[in-house]
Automatic annotation (TrEMBL):
Residues 278-342 are annotated as: Disordered. Signal peptide: none annotated. The gene is NTHL1. Bifunctional DNA N-glycosylase with associated apurinic/apyrimidinic (AP) lyase function that catalyzes the first step in base excision repair (BER), the primary repair pathway for the repair of oxidative DNA damage. The DNA N-glycosylase activity releases the damaged DNA base from DNA by cleaving the N-glycosidic bond, leaving an AP site. The AP lyase activity cleaves the phosphodiester bond 3' to the AP site by a beta-elimination. Primarily recognizes and repairs oxidative base damage of pyrimidines. PROSITE patterns: ENDONUCLEASE_III_1, ENDONUCLEASE_III_2. Keywords: 4Fe-4S, DNA damage, DNA repair, Glycosidase, Hydrolase, Iron, Iron-sulfur, Lyase, Metal-binding, Mitochondrion, Nucleus, Transit peptide. GO terms for cellular component: mitochondrion; nucleus. Pfam families: HHH, HhH-GPD. SMART domains: ENDO3c, FES. Its cofactor is [4Fe-4S] cluster. The keyword NADP does not apply. One of its GO terms (molecular function) is class I DNA-(apurinic or apyrimidinic site) endonuclease activity. This is Endonuclease III-like protein 1. It comes from the Eukaryota.
């Protein structure tokens, strides 16, 4: 028979003896009792939505962009026919085409598209390749690109860039923004446009003076910017990436035809009712009369004519007899009376 001292200790007695939690009590059949693992499940609250990081954007930018697209639908601005996308030789090898795109962008700084296109035509006829640029002397190269803005400085940049491309990139242009901005005379705007046109890769927004000016006028920036690079960073913070390539082409042509730097044509702009700057751009101040900048009153109304058209008229006037002096009515009557008497 089992004695009283040999009987199994119950849980209640163990609690009294050890006065420790059940999970740490020693069982009579050996070892500590293992704590039971509980699985806790929480009810899913379907009403909770993930937190979205809101970014600033202009309230009317979509409507304004559609209006600009409508105004640019004719594609007849200088950038459409003479921009960097049209200045390279389509039949040249790929690396030569990319180099010509870069050259046209370098020449376009502070220069109208018409002047850039004319310079590129002369360069292509001469041979717009890395090798030809390096073998052409500075004076001849200057005559080819004249009268682009700062043409003397650009001659140096073209020579230095061509030498760098031949030495480090085998005659081709870099395929990254970081590599492009290392080239002499190439800034962020040119680099992003070169990536888009030459490499067909959108790396950023190409912001020139037109894009910078119009973005500030339309209120597309959280706060006014002072230079194109600040405008680029501000636009890229909220403008959808799929519009980065199109926005340069749209705004440049729009700035060349409607939203002019001086005296913009707000009366014909489709955004005149939503643009915060509409009809507020003051016209250019006319210089005071007598100041060095004031125009000559006689020269402001004269029209220029070709010498070939001007010379025959002058000869005709010299051959004609001088007009008779005006005669008063009294003198005319006296002459008639004298003729009748004779």
């Amino acid at each position: 028979a089992v004695g009283v001292s040999d009987r199994v200790t119950t849980r209640t007695e163990m609690r009294r003896i050890y006065k420790v939690p059940i999970s740490r009590r020693f069982c009579s059949f050996g070892g500590y009792r293992r704590r039971k693992q509980l699985k806790v499940e929480y009810d899913k609250d379907e009403s909770v939505t993930p937190v979205k990081i809101e970014h600033w954007e202009s309230p009317d930018w979509k409507k304004q962009l559609e209006c600009i697209r409508e105004m640019r639908s004719s594609r007849d601005a200088p950038v459409d026919n003479m921009g960097a996308k049209t200045c390279y030789d389509t039949e040249a090898p790929a690396h030569v085409r990319r180099f010509q795109v870069l050259v046209s962008l370098m020449l376009s700084s502070q220069t109208k598209d018409q002047v850039t296109a004319a310079a590129m035509q002369k360069l292509r006829a001469h041979g717009c390749t890395v090798e030809n640029i390096l073998t052409t002397d500075d004076e001849a190269l200057g005559k080819l690109i004249y009268p682009v803005g700062f043409w003397r400085t650009k001659v140096k940049y073209l020579k230095l860039t061509s030498a760098m491309l031949q030495k480090e990139f085998g005659g081709d242009i870099p395929d990254s923004v970081e590599g492009l901005v290392r080239l002499p005379g190439v800034g962020p705007k040119m680099a992003h446009l070169a990536m888009d046109i030459a490499w067909d890769q959108v790396s950023g927004i190409g912001v020139d003076t037109h894009v910078h000016r119009i973005s500030n006028r339309l209120g597309w920036l959280k706060k006014p910017t002072k230079n194109p690079e600040e405008t680029r960073k501000a636009l890229e913070e909220w403008l959808p990436r799929e519009l980065w390539s199109e926005i340069n082409w749209l705004l440049v042509g729009f700035g060349q035809q409607v939203c002019l730097p001086v005296n913009p044509l707000c009366s014909v702009c489709l955004n005149q009712h939503s643009c915060p700057s509409a009809h507020k751009i003051s016209p250019t101040k006319r210089p005071k009369a007598g100041s060095p900048r004031s125009p000559n009153p006689t020269s402001s109304f004269t029209t220029k004519t070709e010498p070939e058209q001007e010379s025959p008229v002058k000869h005709e006037r010299t051959k004609r007899e001088p007009l008779p002096a005006p005669v008063s009515p009294t003198a005319q009557r006296r002459r008639l009376k004298s003729k009748v008497k004779h």
